[in-house]
């Protein structure tokens, strides 16, 4: 009871500090929030709290605290500190998973998945995306029972492939992600269009795949059937607004269709104009791909092939 009282007293003390407007980061869980702000407001006590949680066998909560610490280190642009906190969190998650299995407690391997993600993010933060690819791929394989988690790992794997300029590999991953969404996700009755989070992922993959195809420009004889089918949807002569199923908003679809046409016609000026119009609708990664497409049209390098 005394320990609980001390913990609550420390929590109230930190909460009062936060009310004064000195909160610097906001993780989603209560204990990580406490640890994160203890780290920034009272650094020596923060380390002690993590040790106490670990000693009391609250391994997953201690891991959450390390995740909060990693977020704070990220705010301070301290990549080595962030990687260290992530690996500490991964070890704690893994220990918690081993403990659950030893007790034969029911679960969904969530701690194992969290450990894999922490290790992968740590490698990525140390600017080694090539090494992170293997870990993200392994994580996706272990997350087959939880499709949304597997899709997140696959998305991170595709990002790493883009960073290492393996554009063909990234295209393959995005294609697999779309197929997984269609296979595992709920669909609108009478169509193959997924709903909810799966729809958002399919839309993101669709845009990235089209941009990668414009960057790679594979010759017709090497164009896979699924990629040819994607490009056909953006061919002006085959577009029927009444029968065409698209997962994208109409304005984004038309702009992306114009990008495909501009690339096929090698119209660089139109492509530059479309880049400006599409910019607010794309993610940072997709804008990077579109920038590479434009640069490849201005000064062809062949590096994307």
From TrEMBL:
One of its GO terms (cellular component) is early endosome. GO terms for biological process: vesicle cytoskeletal trafficking. InterPro entries: F8A (IPR039494), TPR-like_helical_dom_sf (IPR011990). Coiled coil: none annotated. It comes from the Eukaryota. This is Coagulation factor VIII associated. It comes from Takifugu rubripes. The lineage of its organism: Eukaryota, Metazoa, Chordata, Craniata, Vertebrata.
């Amino acid at each position: 009871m005394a320990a609980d009282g001390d913990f609550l007293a420390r929590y109230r003390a930190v909460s009062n500090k936060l009310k004064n407007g000195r909160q610097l980061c906001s993780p989603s869980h209560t204990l990580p929030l406490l640890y994160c702000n203890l780290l920034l407001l009272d650094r020596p006590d923060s380390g002690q709290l993590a040790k106490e949680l670990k000693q009391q066998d609250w391994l997953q909560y201690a891991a959450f605290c390390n995740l909060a610490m990693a977020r704070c280190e990220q705010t301070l642009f301290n990549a080595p500190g962030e990687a260290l906190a992530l690996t500490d969190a991964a070890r704690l998650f893994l220990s918690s998973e081993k403990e659950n299995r030893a007790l034969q407690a029911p679960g969904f391997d969530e701690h194992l998945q969290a450990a894999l993600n922490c290790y992968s993010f740590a490698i990525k933060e140390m600017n080694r995306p090539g090494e992170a690819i293997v870990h993200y791929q392994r994580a996706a394989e272990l997350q087959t029972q939880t499709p949304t988690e597997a899709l997140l790992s696959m998305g991170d794997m595709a990002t790493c492939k883009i960073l290492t300029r393996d554009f063909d590999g990234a295209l393959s991953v995005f294609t697999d992600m779309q197929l997984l969404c269609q296979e595992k996700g709920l669909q609108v009755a009478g169509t193959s269009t997924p709903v909810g989070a799966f729809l958002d992922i399919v839309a993101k993959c669709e845009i990235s795949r089209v941009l990668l195809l414009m960057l790679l420009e594979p010759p017709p004889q090497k164009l896979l059937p699924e990629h040819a089918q994607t490009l056909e949807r953006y061919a002006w002569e085959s577009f029927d607004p009444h029968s065409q199923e698209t997962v994208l908003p109409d304005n984004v679809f038309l702009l992306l269709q114009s990008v495909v046409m501009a690339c096929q016609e090698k119209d660089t000026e139109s492509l530059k104009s479309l880049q400006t119009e599409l910019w607010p609708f794309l993610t940072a990664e997709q804008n990077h791909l579109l920038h590479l497409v434009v640069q490849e049209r201005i000064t062809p390098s062949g590096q994307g092939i």
